[in-house]
Amino acid sequence: MNSPKASPTLVINEKVNAMWAAGQDVLHLGFGESRFPVHPILSASLTENVSRRSYLPAIGTASLRSVVSNFYSEKLNLNFSQEQVLVGVGSKSLLFAMVHSIEGDILLPKPSWVSYSSIAKLTGKKIIRFDLDRKNDFALNIDYLESAYRTASHKGLNPKILILNSPNNPIG
């Protein structure tokens, strides 16, 4: 198994925690932990269910997957069944499962979220980088993507996975 380097995001978070512990005033906007109070409805539900000690289905409960499926159908006109919905504990575990389940190497924009590289390395994928268009607010430039794909293919790599998101972390 390949050993990933410490996540730069977590390293920064540890530094911020140390600064807070030292009494420094830091406005921390770089980590996905909310500093806001838990909504009362969620708090009440957690309190109501605190004594439950059983595992839930690994792919999420049927009722939650049904709600997700209905939301996408009603709000976005995208139709799929609850059996096609996978719920996870966070984006990293779901992205890892997705990348691990698909054969081939991975195309990643540059810059992109630091965890994509770690996930690729852990799953044994080769990383093929392509630049975003700096002159156009870091927009996707299809020529850059096609060039990276062709170059990788000529080098014997197997680019089959492409991860794009908008807004793109860390620039959006």
Set out the fold topology.
Layout: H1 8-21, H2 40-48, H3 62-76, H4 91-101, E1 105-110, H5 114-122, E2 127-131, H6 142-154, E3 159-162
Parallel strand pairs: 1-2, 1-3
Helix pairs in contact: 4-5
Structure description:
There is one protein chain. The protein is mainly alpha-helical and 172 residues long. It has helices at residues 8-21, 40-48, 62-76, 91-101, 114-122, 142-154, and strands at 105-110, 127-131, 159-162. Strands 2-1-3 form a 3-stranded parallel sheet, with helices on both faces. Helix 4 crosses helix 5 (114-122). The protein is globular. The chain is 41% helix and 9% strand. It has 3 domains: 1-48, no CATH class; 56-87, no CATH class; 89-172, Type I PLP-dependent aspartate aminotransferase-like (Major domain) (Aspartate Aminotransferase, domain 2).
